[in-house]
Structure to design on (708 residues):
């Protein structure tokens, strides 16, 4: 417990440097995305949404992949460490997946004429993925022994990942066998000039830095939470022994 | 000696679960009326419009099946909610894969019965005209396998949790989305409502079932160990 | 008669959370032996039995039961042991007969074994068709015992077996256990009903604070007896 007692922050020199870089990057990204980069010929100002939408979607997939990898390690190596990584990544993933869906909808309204398009398999399967990981976070919130919780949530995460292709193909078939894929051709790929391409690339880098920073802190918090849990369990056990010594025997 | 192979043990577990249902009749007395109620509620929501109901028959039918399936899964694990029973199950020497197969089989069989009753329901309430019997029967048999397998997997995950009633649908329904799509398409094709190749959807449902049977056989061990 | 132990614990450490419930326990039980595990609350009695049933992970040391290592072959261990815990583990909706048949067939016992065991515990009469939910605590215990008997385990793990049973059922329990031991089974009993349990057992092990502090057929050392009796 000594180590946990001493901790008063989840920061360190490395995370502070990371935070500074990420913050600087965000400022630059705002300037690049909103001021320096030009509007698109066909999509106009709308194209700027791309600098949030694309990196958010990237982070969502990155996080969920990390959760899946971590979950595999939990089951394979019985690793407590990977369990906390998986949990932290999932939380960040749900956040950015939500952001990607939201920006997608905002973009869809003026472009497709609707907030939502059921014909887009990627959109629909991302929504299902989002819901699966909301469930993952829900099951993690339930108090349980750390190893029990780790195994249980690892399996939920892996089933969720196995499920993605099934959802993807069913949605794709569902619509393409049903009606002509009209809107699908208007996908999210405007003609990009060099600065736009750079801004897009830069946005992915900056978001990844933010992700790394969030992940480190979330992981350390998760670790500390477990220490606190363990500590209270220890107190309960000590108390039980003390009572037994006082009373003696008993049932 | 009694058969201790995977198959024999699975049959023992399935028999036990069906016997529990036979003695308690919770499925008969609660889940079946609920399923019919769902159909009735749809009719209310859609203004009792015969044409709309007929058009949407396949979708509404499978939603009713799905909701009832959630209840059946909950019931299947409620009988094992007692910590003593769960521990006894771990100590029983039964292979986890057999427990999975047995429980999933019992749920699937109950679902098939429910499907027949619901089919009568849509004929009566929605004036549906059943047709394409081969495809209809094939879909009605393979979809429950997938639903029951996924349901059993999530059922054991949430068994023993205080929030299982609310958590199970949240976890299970997104995963069953492909079954809903596939079964609705296949049934729509069988009834002639939509011009799609129903058998390719049947194949899709079969793949879904295979994936979840395999997942269940593998993953049930660690899950049973800790629940 | 010197035979190889059927239950062997070597330097066993078991944790509840992060805190040791057992710290360095050595214990061997030979076939035919009835060993009483005694000690105050929180001493690790239940932990010890659950460990032998493969219900808890072994942190350090080894636990081998009937040739199966608990760490690697839990299922093998569980097919060898019969564990009677605080809970009876009966299905509320099934009758006594259904319950006994299901749980004993799970390890390959026959229907005849199950019926015989029920008769031995006096469950073959009208009680056989009563649903689990309607049973009293003592009747549940008897049903659990019948299941144990029908399963014919090589190692019996009994946690407070005399609790909730009436005197006549306790006598039946004792005779069942003695006969099982005579047939070569090993029995580990954790009990507070010391008079009865000491009479039943061949030797005693005293646990306190996760350690073995007293052992063998002679009465436990005085200091521990005080703690035990309170």
């Amino acid at each position: 417990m000594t180590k946990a007692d001493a901790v008063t922050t989840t920061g360190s020199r490395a995370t502070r440097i990371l935070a500074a870089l990420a913050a600087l990057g965000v400022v630059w990204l705002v300037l690049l995305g909103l001021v320096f980069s030009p509007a698109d010929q066909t999509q106009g100002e709308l194209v700027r949404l791309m600098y949030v939408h694309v990196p958010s979607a990237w982070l969502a997939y990155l996080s969920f992949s990390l959760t899946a990898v971590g979950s595999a390690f939990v089951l394979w190596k019985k690793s407590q460490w990977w369990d906390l990584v998986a949990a932290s990544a999932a939380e960040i993933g749900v956040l950015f997946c939500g952001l990607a869906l939201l920006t997608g909808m905002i973009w869809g309204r003026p472009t497709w004429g609707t907030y939502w398009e059921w014909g887009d398999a990627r959109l629909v399967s991302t929504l299902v993925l989002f819901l699966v990981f909301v469930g993952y976070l829900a099951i993690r919130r339930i108090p349980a022994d750390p190893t029990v919780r780790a195994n249980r949530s690892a399996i939920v995460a892996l089933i969720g990942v196995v499920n993605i292709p099934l959802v993807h193909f069913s949605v794709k078939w569902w619509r393409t066998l049903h009606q002509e894929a009209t809107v699908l051709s208007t996908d999210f790929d405007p003609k990009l000039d060099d600065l736009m391409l750079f801004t897009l690339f830069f946005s992915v880098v900056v978001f990844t830095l933010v992700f790394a920073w969030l992940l480190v802190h979330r992981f350390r918090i998760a670790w500390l939470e477990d220490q606190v849990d363990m500590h209270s369990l220890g107190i309960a056990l000590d108390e039980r022994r003390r009572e037994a010594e006082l009373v003696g025997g008993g049932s | 000696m009694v058969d201790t192979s995977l198959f024999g043990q699975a049959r023992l577990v399935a028999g036990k679960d069906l016997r529990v249902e036979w003695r308690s009749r919770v499925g008969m007395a609660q889940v079946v009326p609920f399923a019919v109620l769902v159909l009735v509620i749809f009719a209310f929501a859609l203004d009792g419009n015969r044409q709309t109901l007929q058009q949407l028959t396949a979708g509404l039918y499978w939603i009713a099946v799905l909701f009832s399936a959630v209840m059946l899964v909950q019931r299947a694990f409620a009988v094992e909610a007692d910590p003593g029973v769960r521990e006894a199950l771990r100590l029983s020497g039964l292979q986890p894969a057999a427990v999975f197969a047995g429980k999933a089989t019992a749920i699937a069989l109950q679902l098939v019965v429910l499907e027949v009753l619901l089919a009568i329901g849509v004929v009566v309430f929605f004036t549906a005209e059943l047709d394409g019997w081969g495809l209809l029967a094939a879909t009605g048999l393979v979809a429950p396998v997938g639903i029951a397998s996924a349901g059993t997997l999530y059922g054991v995950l949430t068994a023993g949790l205080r929030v299982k009633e609310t958590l199970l649908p949240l976890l299970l329904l997104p995963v069953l989305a492909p079954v809903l799509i596939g079964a609705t398409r296949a049934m729509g094709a069988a009834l002639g409502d939509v011009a799609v190749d129903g058998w390719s959807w049947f194949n899709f449902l079969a793949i879904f079932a295979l994936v979840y049977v395999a997942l269940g056989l593998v993953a049930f061990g660690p899950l049973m160990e800790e629940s | 008669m010197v035979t190889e132990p059927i239950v062997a614990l070597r330097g066993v450490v078991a944790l509840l959370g992060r805190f040791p419930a057992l710290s360095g326990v050595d214990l061997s039980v030979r076939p035919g032996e009835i060993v009483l595990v005694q000690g105050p609350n929180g001493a690790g009695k239940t932990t010890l039995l659950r460990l032998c049933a493969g219900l808890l992970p072994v942190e350090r040391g080894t636990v081998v039961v009937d040739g199966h290592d608990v760490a690697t072959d839990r299922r093998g261990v569980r097919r060898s042991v019969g564990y009677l815990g605080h809970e009876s583990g009966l299905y509320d909706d099934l009758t006594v007969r259904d319950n006994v048949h299901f749980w004993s067939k799970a390890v390959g016992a026959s229907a005849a074994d199950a019926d015989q065991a029920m008769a031995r515990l006096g469950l073959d009469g009208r009680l056989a068709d009563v649903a689990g939910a309607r049973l009293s605590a003592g009747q549940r215990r008897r049903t659990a015992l019948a299941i144990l008997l029908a399963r014919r385990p090589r190692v019996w793990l009994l946690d407070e077996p005399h609790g909730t049973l009436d005197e006549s059922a306790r006598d039946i329990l004792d005779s069942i256990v003695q006969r099982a031991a005579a047939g070569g089974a090993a029995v580990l009993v954790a009990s507070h009903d010391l008079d009865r349990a000491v009479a039943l057992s061949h030797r005693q092990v005293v646990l306190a604070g996760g350690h073995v502090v007293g052992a063998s057929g002679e009465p436990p050392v005085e200091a521990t007896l005080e703690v035990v009796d309170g």
Summary: The first helix of chain A runs from residue 2 to 6.
